[in-house]
Structures are given as structure tokens and as C-alpha cells.
Specification:
alpha+beta, Bacterial Protein-export protein SecB, 4-stranded antiparallel sheet, 3 helices, 4 strands, 42% strand, elongated
């Protein structure tokens, strides 16, 4: 475990989750029976002021028909998660990277799941529910 990480997590407080952007496109109204979902998740962070750190999560999903490999739709959701922490805790890039890799998605994933399900239903497709995110050591 990274030195200082437990102190950082203990002092961390989620202040807000903000939807920054949604982009979505349905290339056909009917959802084929056999689809493949591809995803790409990018995260980043910045410290706007002492005692606060903001993380950005951009989750992109592409829905492909397996037989033709044709993209039938896509959804991109970008969230900003704003946290406060005790200034006395020495925060460094290693601690922030560890948080991105282990804990950040526990807060972001339920919101990503909600938006993907809502948007795919708006396409006229049956609701597409992303699985729970599970972390295994």
C-alpha cells in the first residue's frame, strides 16, 4: 500500500458528481440479438485549490453487431467528480493515481450505468444495463 493513501482515503469527502457531456448515436432503431459492447474508459485529475481534487471520467461504449462488426450505436458519458480532503494530508501523484486505479470508479460507475441505460432506452432499444463493477484482488 502506498504511504499516506489510507490517510487520504479517510479524509476524502465526495462533494459533487457533475455530468459534463453526453454524446450518443443510434445507427439503427432495432437492436440485433447478438451484439458486442466495446468500452474505453479514461480518467484524469487536477487540483483546482488546496484541499480539493477533481477527477474526470470519460466512458465510451460502442455497440457492434457480432456478425457484420458494424457499429449500431455509441454512447460517451463524461463525468466530473469533485472531492475535498484535509490539507494536512500530503497528496501526491502516486496517491491520486492509486485512487484512480482502485476507488474512483466505485463512485462513478453507478452514474455511468444510469446514463447508458437511459440513453439506450431513448434509442428505442430494450434497456441496456451495464454489469456491476467488481474489484477482485
Amino acid at each position: 500500500m502506498i504511504e499516506g493513501y489510507v490517510d487520504f482515503i479517510t479524509s476524502l469527502n465526495l462533494m459533487d458528481i457533475v455530468l459534463k457531456e453526453i454524446r450518443a448515436k443510434a445507427n439503427q432503431k432495432e437492436l440485433p440479438e447478438d451484439i458486442k459492447v466495446e468500452h474505453d474508459i479514461k480518467v484524469g485529475h487536477y487540483i483546482p485549490e488546496d484541499g480539493r481534487v477533481d477527477f474526470t471520467v470519460k466512458a465510451a461504449f460502442r455497440f457492434r453487431e457480432r456478425a457484420s462488426r458494424r457499429i449500431i450505436g455509441s454512447v460517451i458519458v463524461t463525468l466530473e467528480l469533485r472531492y475535498s480532503y484535509l490539507i494536512l494530508i500530503g497528496v501526491n501523484e502516486e496517491i491520486l493515481k492509486e485512487f484512480e486505479d482502485t476507488s474512483l470508479m466505485l463512485n462513478a460507475w453507478p452514474y455511468i450505468r444510469f446514463w447508458v441505460q437511459t440513453i439506450t432506452q431513448s434509442f428505442g432499444w430494450p434497456p441496456f444495463v451495464l454489469p456491476l463493477m467488481k474489484f477482485v484482488e
